[in-house]
């Protein structure tokens, strides 16, 4: 099996070198490591990697250039996996990133909450394989800002949705909440119904459920 090819974008030299070394040790093939948003776009266009891992705030403005570049790349290169790795929750473009493409192959993780390197590697590979993973703290912050849809859900349904956003299966959610898998299935069905999501395959509806909240949170 060929290693996952990665373009890494991080403006901090020490952190960039650290991530480069970590990803290489974890079996990823880092084809380019850059320090600004323009270089990120150029390297991704040139190398056509499987995955982009990017900081959110990058030169020249140190606001949300990395996130905006990621959104642009997702539009230009369908199927490109992108992980935003940040210290901050950028509400507007976070929703745009997570809503780009079909909502798959995308993640938003907070740097200071990545504490297990093997789990980090597994998360990156899950996203490359089509998963959507949002740090639960990002979900909580966005949920606090959102308006309509959450008012329809019970506290337990909100908890289930947060775990869905982390990329957990029904079985994993059941184990975490100490309830049956059947109960989780009922909660998920209720969430999807309350969000008025159109009939589709279950995995896509789960992604759309998370994206519905994130779009609402960014408005």
From TrEMBL:
Residue numbers carrying 4-aspartylphosphate: 55
SUPFAM superfamilies in UniProt: CheY-like
Lineage: Bacteria, Bacillati, Actinomycetota, Actinomycetes, Micrococcales
Occurrences of domain HTH luxR-type (ranges): 146-216
Superkingdom of the source species: Bacteria
A Pfam entry, by short name: GerE
Protein name from the UniProt record: Response regulator
Organism in which the protein naturally occurs: Promicromonospora vindobonensis
InterPro entries per record: CheY-like_superfamily (IPR011006), NreC/VraR/RcsB-like_REC (IPR058245), Sig_transdc_resp-reg_receiver (IPR001789), Tscrpt_reg_LuxR_C (IPR000792), WalR-like (IPR039420), WH-like_DNA-bd_sf (IPR036388)
Domain called Response regulatory: residue spans: 5-126
PANTHER family noted in UniProt: TRANSCRIPTIONAL REGULATORY PROTEIN NARL-RELATED, TWO-COMPONENT RESPONSE REGULATOR
Keywords of this entry: DNA-binding, Phosphoprotein, Transcription, Transcription regulation
CDD domains tied to this protein: LuxR_C_like (cd06170), REC_NarL-like (cd17535)
Alphabetized Gene3D superfamilies for the sequence: 3.40.50.2300, Winged helix-like DNA-binding domain superfamily/Winged helix DNA-binding domain
């Amino acid at each position: 099996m060929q290693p996952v090819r990665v373009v890494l974008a991080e403006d901090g030299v020490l952190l960039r070198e650290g991530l480069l070394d970590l990803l290489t040790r974890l079996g990823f093939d880092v084809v380019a490591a850059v320090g600004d948003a323009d270089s990120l776009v150029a390297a991704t266009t040139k190398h056509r990697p499987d995955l982009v891992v990017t900081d959110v705030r990058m030169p020249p403005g140190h606001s949300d250039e990395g996130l905006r570049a990621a959104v642009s790349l997702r539009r230009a290169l369908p199927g490109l996996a992108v992980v935003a790795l940040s210290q901050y929750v950028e509400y507007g473009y976070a929703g745009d990133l997570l809503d780009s493409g079909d909502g798959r192959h995308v993640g938003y993780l907070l740097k200071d909450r990545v504490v297990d390197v093997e789990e980090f590697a597994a998360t990156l590979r899950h996203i490359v394989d089509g998963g959507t993973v949002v740090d639960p703290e990002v979900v909580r912050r966005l949920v606090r800002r959102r308006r309509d849809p959450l008012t329809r859900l019970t506290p337990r349904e909100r908890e289930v949705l947060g775990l869905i956003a982390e990329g957990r299966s029904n079985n994993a959610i059941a184990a975490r909440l100490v309830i049956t898998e059947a109960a989780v299935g009922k909660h998920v069905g209720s969430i999807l119904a309350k969000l008025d999501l159109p009939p589709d395959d279950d995995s896509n509806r789960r992604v759309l459920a998370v994206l519905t909240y994130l779009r609402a949170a960014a408005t």
